[in-house]
Amino acid sequence: MTSPRNLVVFALLAAGAVASWYLARTGRGDDADAPPFEAAHRGYYLKSARILGTGPDGELLYEIRAAQAEQQDDNRVTFTDVRIDYSPQSEVPWTVNADSATINQDEQRVLLRGHVRAVSAEGFSGNDTEIRTRYLEFDPENYLAETDERVQIRIGARSLTATGMLASLKDNHVELKSNVSGKFAP
């Protein structure tokens, strides 16, 4: 026979089992409709990215290649290990490399950071030319490169350093802003 004490224990166990089943079932209803994880943002991510830029006539003007490209929440795209080349038809013999770059959706400038290097075999004065800086704002459609940072420029055997620069890559023209010093070999 069952004692009143066993009946109370059995009733409490049964009530606990029903309560835990009810709580588990109601808690699971909200989670069952939710995705298993929430993404940080809903942009795209590319490896070995290749982006083509066209001129006003619709012809290929330049190409941006990067190891990675990722769309950010604020309508910008970030790139790593970047290389920008003009098309042969543009007759702009410059290549620009950088550790990283950012393009804002509403701007046409490419913001380059890290070890930024622009090189041309037919650069300023028709000589091998190399421009180095940590930061460069590059407008590929208008062929302009600008920085307010320290810049090192090598033109053939000559070398210059300055703070700030504006260069027109189409015209092979450079304007140094301040603190210019250089070394010129005969």
In short:
The chain folds into two domains: 1-38; 45-183, Lipopolysaccharide (LPS) transport protein A like domain (lipopolysaccharide transport protein A fold, Sandwich).
What is the strand arrangement across the widest sheet? 1-2-3-4-5-6-7-8-9
Q: What is the SS-derived class?
A: alpha+beta
Give the number of helices.
1
* CATH homology superfamily of the largest domain: Lipopolysaccharide (LPS) transport protein A like domain
**How would you describe the oligomerization state of the chains in this entry?**
single chain
Helix content: 10-25%
Describe this structure in words.
- The chain is α+β, with helices and mostly antiparallel strands and 186 residues long.
- 16% of the residues lie in helices and 53% in strands.
- The protein contains 1 helix and 9 strands; from the N terminus they run αβββββββββ.
- Strands 1-2-3-4-5-6-7-8-9 form a 9-stranded antiparallel sheet, with no helix packed on it.
- It is elongated and about 110 Å long.
Keywords:
elongated; 186 residues; 9 strands; alpha+beta; nine-stranded antiparallel sheet; 53% strand; lipopolysaccharide transport protein A fold
Per-chain topology:
Layout: H1 4-33, E1 45-54, E2 60-71, E3 76-86, E4 95-104, E5 110-120, E6 129-139, E7 144-155, E8 158-168, E9 173-183
Antiparallel strand pairs: 1-2, 2-3, 3-4, 4-5, 5-6, 6-7, 7-8, 8-9
